[in-house]
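Just scan this pair:

***
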Amino acid sequence: MNLSYPIGEFAAKPVINESERQALIASLAETPTRLQAAIAGLTQEQLETPYRPEGWTVRQTVHHLADSQVNGYIRFKLGLTEETPTIKPYAEKLWAELADGQCADTGISLQLLDAVHQRWTFLLHATPPEAFARQIRHPEYGEMSLDTVLQLYEWHARHHLAHITSLRQRQHW
C-alpha cells in the first residue's frame, strides 16, 4: 500500500455530469461523520501516532482536514462571486506545526468541519449547474473550474480519512 496516497493521487475528470456532481456533494457531506468514526475510541497516544514515517500525527491530520476544508469552502465562494479569482495558497506543513494543529482537542476541528460542511453542502445544492463551470486560479496549478474544486476537496477528504483508517488497520486498533 502507498502510505502517502492510499487511495491514489488526485485526478480530476475534465467534465462531470449532474449525477456525478451530486454524488461528490453527498460524499463531501459525509466527511465529518466519517472522520468522527475514523478516530472514535483512539487514545491520546494513538492520536499522536504519525500515519506514516515522516507524516503527520492523527491529531495533526484531523486539524489539517478542517483547515483545508475551510479553505476549500472559501475558495469555492470566491469562485462564485468573483471573476476567476486568484486564491491564496497556505503553508499546510507549517500550519500543522502550529500549537492548534499539534495540541488542540480533535473535537474542536470535528465541530468546525461539521459546521463548514453543513454550510458548504447547503451552498453546493443551491448552486446552479452552470455555475460549476466558473473558474478560480491557483498560483501554482493554474485555472480550475468549480467542478474541479469540488472533485479535489472530496478526494482530499477521502485521502486523509484513508491515512487514518489504514493506520488503524495496520496497527490493529
About this structure: The first helix runs from residue 18 to 29. Helices lie at 18-29, 31-39, 44-47, 58-81, 92-97, 99-103, 106-126, 146-171. The chain has eight helices and two strands.
